[in-house]
Amino acid sequence: MKKDTVLLADRHMATLDSMRGLLKTKFNSIVMVSDETSLTEMLPKIAPDLVLVDQSFIVTRAPDVVSLVNKFDPGLKIIVISTYEEPEYMQQCMSSGASGYILKRSAAKEIIQAIEKVLSGGTYVTSNYGFSNRKDAQAINGAKRSTQKKD
Predict the structure, then answer these.
(1) Across residues 87-111, what is the average pLDDT?
(2) Given a cut of 70, is residue 1 above it in pLDDT?
(3) Cα(53)–Cα(8) distance, rounded to whole angstroms?
(4) Is the whole-model pTM more than 0.70?
(5) Rounded mean pLDDT of 57-76?
(6) 18 is in which domain, residue-wise?
């Protein structure tokens, strides 16, 4: 069954186009933005089910793009797509509220699995990530992310 809307945020049109191609069977509506202004305008207008965002997406209104998206809806599912393989980048994104982190080099193979996991309430970290052992990766990918808002 298709979900309603996904918001793709990346500065590179080629990346946006390839992601749209991968997702067109999963979502009724795919909205693409390539700058912060468009991102902040579209988030409240379309109320997406999911945001897929490039980690290097430039923002000025928050410490990072995940924090910016969370300002609009703290419960929104966010998957970060990144070229950065170092653990501190993944940890920062997950600490800021992302539900998933995948590497661009493996996105074509993993994006659908990551989306399904995140939309069902779990977290997802790319299988190509440099974990010291399989148990660490399974612990992260088996975790559930709380999306309850605090009063």
Answers:
(1) 89
(2) no
(3) 6
(4) yes
(5) 89
(6) 3-142
Q: Is residue 78 part of a domain?
A: yes
125: tokens are 């970290």
For 150, the token pair is 């605090």
Looking at the DSSP assignment, which residues form a beta bridge with residue 6?
A: 30, 50
Provide CB contacts within 8 A for 16, sequence distance 6+: 8, 10, 32, 34
In a domain, 30, yes or no: yes
Report the share of the chain in percent with pLDDT over 70.
Answer: 83
Task: Count CA atoms closer than 13 A to 71's CA, side-chain side.
Answer: 11
Beta bridge partners of 144: 122
- Tokens 């995140």 found at: 118
pLDDT value, residue 128: 60
pLDDT at 2: 59
Cβ atoms of residues 110 and 86 within 8 Å: no
Contacts of 105 (CB under 8 A, 6+ apart): 83, 128
Residue 143 and residue 94: Cα distance in Å, rounded? 12
- Does some domain include residue 10? yes
- pLDDT, position 140: 54
**Integer Cα distance of 39 and 140 in angstroms:** 28
Domain for residue 148, yes or no?
no
